[in-house]
Specification:
The chain is an alpha/beta fold and 654 residues long. The protein is 45% helix and 11% strand. Helix 19 links the parallel strand 10 and strand 11. The longest helix is centred in the middle third of the chain and has 28 residues. The protein is globular and about 80 Å long. The chain starts with a strand and ends with a helix. 31% of the residues are buried.
Length: 654
């Protein structure tokens, strides 16, 4: 049975509630608040259900539905161990019933309880009836006479028995039913013909058999069958020469008509949402090189300020409104080239403008196309499906009064959904470092991720940025597995002018990190950046070692470094890293006092190589709930930015 049912507005006003049990060990409103924080505010309204795990008591499942026109939310709560098949039916029916009672501005509906009780009984009865029908054994359907099959068999017998008597074929048929006997008689009535018809019928059957894919003698002619004697060998040699001459002639004609090979052109670089413009050649090995490259032992101070502190570039929004205007002017032909938003508006504007309200059937064709286009921009499939469901929930029930309002309305729904996902809680690293400095403790940051994504390089970029803000940084070489990892970090430390703590290879990374933190605290360092070895998310021994390092040293920030090039694998990586950090921590399995720590932020690397395929950022944030804190956009220490949410949204929609 249900535990709780609630109706409230999207503004947070509780309109009507009904509690079915007094055995709950927590406040029912806690589950509703958790639903609002986790699903509704984070644009996860497309999820089928939400599981709430209270500190005390059994877990609960929350299912909900919306009425977007009035801004109402209907929520049903029940125990996770129960299987209630009528909840979706109940939510839909209650939504329709409550609309008859609802008055804007009124917050008390005591008379609705009687109607709710009746609707609940009806839904339970329908569910029990459906369950009983499903439990009944299925009966085999009686075999009915098949006139089409009988006619087919009669037609197949026609022409088989021909004149000649002794050469006639005998057809075997079942005598179980009179219809079969009648069919045999009907088939035999038209089968008597002249003796010559037998041969003709045989030729036609052979031809039909070949056309249907049967044995074809024509395919064997000239395939490995060689005539005997010198004449046969001469014929085969002449045939081979003729084939070779034909091939040579075709090759010469193709080369004569083919266009000359085009020289390779330089790549044209451009930012997201801006017009592309050539920036000249990128090869500086000839002529005068930049100052930092000219000085082989130069420090990173030659490169200037980090791009993190630069002002965000303004990106013009993508204008797809002319698409809806084209339909308004009676031009049914869609534009030749449209982006994701333009395609969605075009499909939607054909049938829904002027209708009562948007329904799921109206949105389905446009949403399917939108999901495909999101996946083309590197959004993971399951994440694209959830984003589409979230947009559908926000559009369903809304009214579109004119063609010119379609584009703006749909764009607003898209931007709200995507921005709500990407605009997660932000971590002010510089402010947190100052607070740690006031306590006399170093601020510890651990970098983790799979192999080859650029952890060490982006660690050095962040160290460069922190140094520009007056922070005293120390590096810790805790990648004691990969050959050359310590030497790579030594080179970065030398160029950055910061100390490096390292113990070489084949040491316990957790102990190396602990020693580095103690040395940094003794020397008065503000920040310790811990580099770890790359590892695949399915490697349990290495994931256990990483979890042990984090549990032992309790860093203030755990950053996951991932590539912007990945699609579906981004979700798998983040989910399994988070799960391993939580479940493999020492004492976690036994319910001990070990503090569980998961990923706090994301560093997205190689962002300058993906053009408009920015879906990995959306997938990573949606899967983990952690914000994208830094974006790597080049190969020098200054090439580190903050994620520009508007540019990502524009790139997904264009």
């Amino acid at each position: 049975m249900l535990d709780y049912f609630a109706i409230f507005t999207k503004g947070g006003a509780l309109l009507w509630t009904l509690q079915f049990t007094t055995a709950l060990k927590h406040n029912p409103l806690d589950a509703l608040n958790a639903l609002i924080r986790t699903c509704l505010l984070e644009e996860r309204s497309g999820d089928a259900a939400f599981t709430y795990a209270p500190k005390v008591g059994a877990q609960q499942v929350l299912k909900w539905t919306f009425h977007n026109g009035l801004g109402l939310v209907f929520v049903a709560v029940y125990q996770r161990t129960l299987s209630l098949l009528y909840v979706e039916d109940l939510l839909s029916t209650i939504k329709d019933a409550f609309l008859q009672e609802y008055t804007p501005g009124s917050y008390s509906y005591p008379q609705f309880q009687a109607k709710f009780t009746q609707v609940l009984r009806d839904c339970e009865a329908r569910s029990e009836k459906a369950r009983a029908l499903a439990a009944q054994p299925t009966r085999a359907a009686p075999a009915a006479a098949a006139p089409a099959a009988t006619a087919g068999k009669a037609a197949g017998q026609a022409g088989v028995k021909a004149g000649g008597g002794a050469g006639a074929l005998q057809e075997w048929s079942s005598d179980d039913s009179g219809s079969d006997a009648d069919g045999d008689a009907a088939g035999s009535s038209g089968s008597a013909a002249g003796g010559s018809s037998s041969a003709a019928g045989s030729d036609e059957e052979a031809a039909n058999g070949n056309a249907a894919g049967g044995f074809n003698m024509e395919k064997l002619k000239g395939k490995g069958v060689r005539a005997a004697g010198p004449a046969g060998r001469r014929n085969m040699a002449a045939a081979r020469r003729a084939v070779e001459d034909a091939k040579d002639k075709a090759a010469k004609e193709k080369s004569a008509h083919s266009s000359p090979a085009k020289a390779k052109s330089g790549r044209v670089w451009g930012g997201l949402g801006r017009k592309e413009e050539s920036v000249g050649r990128l090869d500086f090995t000839e002529g005068q090189a930049p100052a930092a490259a000219a000085n082989g032992n130069g420090t990173a101070a030659d490169l200037g300020s980090s791009l993190i502190d630069a002002a965000e570039e303004e990106y013009e929004p993508i204008d797809d409104e002319p698409v809806g205007q084209a339909y308004a002017n009676g031009n049914a032909a869609a534009p030749a080239k449209r982006g994701l938003l333009g395609s969605f508006v075009g499909k939607l504007a054909r049938s829904v403008v002027g209708s009562a309200a948007l329904s799921a059937a109206d949105l389905a064709p446009a949403l399917d196309d939108m999901k495909r286009r999101l996946m083309e921009r590197n959004v993971a499939e399951e994440i694209a499906a959830q984003v589409v469901d979230s947009v559908a929930h926000s559009l369903e029930g809304q009214k579109l009064s004119s063609f010119t309002g379609v584009g703006q309305f749909v764009r607003r729904a898209f931007e709200d959904s995507l921005s709500g996902i990407l605009n997660k809680r932000q971590v002010d690293v510089l402010h947190d470092i100052k607070r740690a400095r006031a306590r006399g403790k170093p601020y510890v940051v651990v970098f983790c991720g799979v192999n080859g994504v650029g952890k060490s390089t982006n660690l050095a970029k962040i160290a460069y940025w922190l140094g520009q803000h007056g922070c005293k940084v120390q590096l810790a070489a805790c990648d004691t597995f990969r050959a050359g990892a310590v030497e790579q970090l030594k080179t970065h430390a030398m160029r950055l002018g910061v100390p490096l703590y390292e113990r070489g290879y084949e040491k316990d990374p957790a102990k190396v990190a602990a020693e580095a933190i103690r040395v940094a605290e003794r020397d008065g360092r503000d920040v310790v950046l811990v580099d770890t070895a790359g590892r695949m998310q399915d490697n349990e021994p290495l994931m256990r070692a990483l979890s042990n390092l984090i549990s032992l040293n309790q860093p203030e920030l755990v950053l996951f470094v991932g590539e912007a090039l990945v699609g579906n694998d981004a979700v798998d990586q983040l989910v399994k890293f988070n799960r391993s950090l939580a479940d493999l921590a020492p004492g976690a399995a036994a319910g001990g006092p070990a503090k569980r720590q998961v990923i706090d932020g994301i560093v997205l690397t190689k962002f300058d190589t993906i053009d408009d395929k920015v879906g990995a950022a959306l997938s990573m944030v949606y899967a983990s709930g952690a914000p994208v804190m830094f974006v790597g956009c080049g190969q020098t220490y200054v090439d580190l930015k903050k994620l520009n949410v508007r540019s990502v949204v524009n790139s997904l929609l264009k």
